[in-house]
Amino acid sequence: MLPKHEDSKFKKWLDILQQESWQLELIISGVAIFGLIQTFDPIVTLANAVSAKAMDNTTLSAISSIAFAAIMMCLLSLTICLIIHVILRGLWIGAVGLRYFSGDIDYEVLNYTDKFKAYLKKRIGSFDKYISKLEDYCSLIFALSFLLVFFFLSFFISIAVFSGILALIGMLFSGIAEKIFSIIFGIFMSIAFLMTAIDFFTQGFLKKKKWLAYVYFPIYRVMSRVTFSFLYRPLLYNLLDNKLGKRILAVLIPVFIVGLMSFSINIKESNFHIDRWNDKAEYARVLNYDDEIADNERIFVNNATIPSKIIKSSSLPIFIKHRIAIEDVIYKIDSTLIPKNDDRGYELGSINFQFDLENKDIAYAKLKKYLEVLKDVVTIKLDSTVVPATYIMTHNRKGQRGYETVLDLKDVSRGVHILEITRKRIRRDSISTIDVARIPFWYYLD
Q1: Which H or E run includes 168?
Q2: Which spans are transmembrane here (predicted)?
Q3: How far is CA 83 from the centre of its chain?
Q4: pLDDT per residue over 59-68, tens digit each?
Q5: Residue 208, Cβ neighbours under 10 Å: how many?
Q6: What percent of the chain has pLDDT over 90?
Q7: pLDDT tens profile 1-40
Q8: 338 and 240: one domain?
Q9: Residue 178: inside a domain, yes or no?
Q10: Whole-angstrom distance, CA of residue 241 vs CA of residue 413
Q11: What's the mean pLDDT in 423-428?
């Protein structure tokens, strides 16, 4: 019995499906574009939420940044490609409809001079040729839409894999051994990336030269596993054996890379109004005011907030975002607060990955003591004067965990004031102080 892909009936079915595939392409493209556009805002919101939670964990922060960058790049490239495909496919449908109405191009009826007639016949040819080219472009763009997604995913997956190996080397070795292994692996990684990039952008140059192919082959085998290229390799090589496919691929990938990089282009509007000052008393950060971020689902609190830039009440609520680093300092100051089992870790719903679902060591008395020690960890100043504060645990309107206190402004003069918040942190087994926020506000009691 013949394999399925060699059966004549299967081949005939594929030929029929190939001719009718434009309908599926349009349906998939339309639904996909609609769905992709709807996903951008939720993904950005989720990315900001994860970033706000992972600020103390550099590893988790780096992983989430790479993951969301990969997701956004893939979605953006796919959306752009599919939009181009829908436009071209719409043009193709229009051309087919026009052919039914008007037939082929009759250059004699146009009554142009022989020079223009010869030129147009050579450059344009028959109308059927134009429709055929549009069909080819539409099919290639549709295939490339998903191929580009695999390309970008391969790039980010390879970065993640190699970064993970470097982290593993750091965990297994230390001192000179760690440096030696890291350097050796770094050199291999650099060579592998460079050769893979050269081969990719030259569309297989290293595979065509005998001695280069001998050197590149083992690297190619390794990188094909690391980048998961074996999943899309048949699609790629089937594209590269076609002249039109090679040309489109050669042009489209650099264009997309430049296009995606252009999204990071900014216009510098001032030499002074820049983010460098966002930790200064003269800079009002949007992230420090509850009313500024309340209606924006994408924005989360990084450090601390007050209700508004203009305070019209004699009470000033202050929210300070919880950080793992704050709790670490509390444990450093008072070791009696350290629970028998440290449950801090990743959770899936109510299941803690530390496999300790209820820490019975923590009593309410320890909670009160925890908040007492917090007074020594976090310091609040109003116009450079330390203000005593009592904290409670709370969540803000964004659902973020933190601490809240309220300052009495009854005896404070009307006008502009500066709220300064600092906290202690552990730095190389010693405790130092860092700035959390400087928040300017106007106080005008009604």
Answers
A1: helix 127-172
A2: 21-40, 60-88, 141-174, 180-201, 213-232, 244-267
A3: 21
A4: 666 677 777 7
A5: 11
A6: 7
A7: 555 555 565 556 556 555 566 677 777 787 888 888 888 7
A8: no
A9: no
A10: 78
A11: 84
Q: How many domains does the chain have?
A: 2
Give the Cα separation of 100 and 375 in Å (integer): 81
Over the stretch 258-284, which tens digit does the pLDDT of each residue have? 766 766 677 776 676 666 656 677 778
* Count of CB atoms situated within 10 Å of the CB of 242: 13
The rounded distance, in Å, linking the Cα atoms of 384 and 324 is 27
272 lies in some domain: no
Q: What angle do CA 153, 159, 164 make, to 5 degrees?
A: 125
The set of residues, in sequence order, having a beta carbon less than 8 Å from that of 65 and lying 6+ positions away, is 51
* 243 and 359 fall within a common domain: no
* Contact status, residue 337 vs residue 344, Cβ threshold 8 Å: no
- In terms of residue numbers, what domain contains 308? 281-443
Q: Is residue 220 part of a domain?
A: no
Token pair 């700035």 is at which residue?
435
428, 287: one domain = yes
Asked, for residue 432, whether it belongs to a domain, the answer is: yes
User: Are residue 348 and residue 258 in the same domain, yes or no?
Assistant: no
Q: How far apart are CA 418 and CA 407, in angstroms?
A: 13
Helix (H) or strand (E) holding 287: none
Instruction: Please indicate, yes or no, whether residues 255 and 289 belong to a single structural domain of this protein.
Output: no
Residue 230 CA to residue 224 CA, distance in Å, equals: 6
Query: What pLDDT shows up at residue 117?
Result: 82
Distance CA 189, CA 440 (A): 48
Query: What's this model's pTM, rounded to 2 decimal places?
Result: 0.62
Are 287 and 333 members of one domain?
yes
